[in-house]
Amino acid sequence: MVSYGNQLDVDPSDLIDYLGLDSNVDVIGCYIEGFKPGAGARFFKSGCKCPKPVIVYKAGRTQAGRMATESHTASIAGEYVVAKAAMKQAGLVVADTMIDHTEFIKTFALLNGFEVRGNRVAIIANAGYEKTYGADNLRSLQVAEFCKKTEEKLRKILPPFVTVEPLLDLTPMADDAMYEKCIDTILADEEVDALMVSIVPHSAVIHTTDSEIAANAKNVAARIVELVHKHKKPVAVSVCVSPGADAVYNKLGQVLDQGGVPTFLTANRAMLCLNEFIRYHMIRQNGELREWLKED
User: Fold this and answer.
1) DSSP 105
2) Together in a domain, 266 and 187
3) What is the mean pLDDT of each run of 10 residues along the chain (296 residues)?
4) Contact 265, 246 (CB under 8 A)
5) Same domain (yes/no): 19, 65
């Protein structure tokens, strides 16, 4: 982290140029209030040639916000619409909120090095509403189609009342082992490029509480971490908890995040971040930066 004050002798373009060459840095996050005269153009050029993802939150979007930033750093906040278009044209990731900024950085950092083969995504959940919430927020992602071999394997794993489909509802009777077998089978499918896993942790048959995580080395979180690194496909996890009950499941999220699997509190957030990661890399690979200007 670098706090560079009022940009008297160092500005964001200097930092991007420097950090872009640092082998210890995988992702660069920028909070931008405004630019000194001429510094905006340098920033866009630096971001465009940077070999690493640059994730930006640009403050000063409203008249009041521009007044605040200009008095704070003595910089020119400028028109947000123009700045956003220029940043996207340069291939930067633009976060709409500070929550997006933080969670995009986490997602890009944890999934760094994962191969993005396409935008076909599957969903595994143990509650129908989480599956639906994720499906409603696909954005530029597309629902995958399982190959016949995957469908056959899943039918052997799942009880007959569970419908085998890419938007898979395991129902609350799914335990740690069922999650593991289904995730392993789906990630092995060449027709699936990415996966969103949703866990509603209140189910009695799955090990999710702090005490259960501590007592069971083969808990669901540990199994997911192992499988994600085995298959190296982008995966995001949603742990949906009731308000006030989240403290009971702290270790569940910690094991996933610390194991390199980006984890969020809703299917919406998980899918938003998964989409941003996949879309960014596909556009970068194709060199079609003008596609980055299009909103989902």
Assistant:
1) H
2) yes
3) 83 94 96 84 92 92 55 54 86 94 98 96 95 94 98 97 96 96 98 97 93 96 98 97 74 96 95 96 81 65
4) yes
5) yes
Same domain membership, residue 266 and residue 181: yes
> Is the full-model pTM beyond 0.85?
yes
CB contact at 8 A, 179 and 169? no
Domain annotation covers residue 247: yes
Smallest CA-to-CA distance from 184 within 121, 118, 124 is with: 124
From residue 187, alpha-carbon distances to 77, 81, 111, 182, 269 in Å are: 45, 39, 15, 9, 21
Instruction: Single out the residue of 257, 275, 236 nearest to residue 124, CA to CA.
Output: 236
Contact 227, 184 (CB under 8 A): yes
Query: Which helix (DSSP H) or strand (DSSP E) does residue 46 occupy?
Result: helix 39-49
Q: Residue 204: is it exposed, middle or buried by C-beta count within 10 angstroms (0-12/13-18/19+)? A: exposed
Residue 40 makes CB contacts below 8 A (sequence gap 6+) with 76, 78, 83, 86
- Give which of 99, 64, 78, 63 is closest to 32, Cα–Cα: 78
What residues have CB less than 8 Å from 186, skipping those under 6 apart?
122, 124, 146, 150, 154, 168, 192, 195
